[in-house]
Design brief:
With 133 residues, the protein is of the alpha/beta class. The strands form 2 sheets. Strands 1-4-3-2 form a 4-stranded mixed beta sheet, with helices on one face.
């Protein structure tokens, strides 16, 4: 089994696509008007309009209803990304902080309320852990 992507469901596809284009610096691929993908070197982030949920069966997902998943992006320099994104992000949850497990991290919410973590391993142990990836 191969992990393929994470897909978010939204009622405002264009708004979320523009937001993640600014955050990632990657232009989304739009194979259909109700679907977009950010194909990054390490993963794919997909965004589907709430209209697509009907294709999977009624009630299978709800737009902007996530409080249990954190979307994480590994970056080179958390503090530099924080400075770059500060004017673009309305809801910062945590300014850059070094976590007990050795990652420097900054957290914010996207326009739909999804929690996003920018992180970089900074301690020797964390750097060793991520050198295997």
């Amino acid at each position: 089994m191969d992990f393929a992507s994470v897909r978010m469901i939204t009622d405002d596809l264009d708004r979320l696509v523009v937001f993640y284009e600014k955050i990632t610096g990657v232009l989304a691929k739009r194979p259909a008007p109700v679907f977009a993908e950010f194909v990054l070197p390490s993963c794919t982030l997909a965004i589907g309009h709430s209209q697509t949920v009907q294709l999977f069966g009624a009630g299978s997902a709800r737009a902007a209803d996530n409080r249990s998943v954190i979307i994480e992006f590994r970056v080179r320099d958390v503090d530099a990304e924080y400075a770059r994104l500060k004017p673009l992000v309305a809801d910062w949850v945590q300014e850059p902080t070094t976590m007990p497990w050795g990652n420097r991290s900054a957290l914010f919410r996207d326009p739909d309320g999804n929690l996003v973590n920018l992180f970089a391993p900074v301690t020797e142990e964390a750097l060793e852990r991520f050198s295997r990836h």
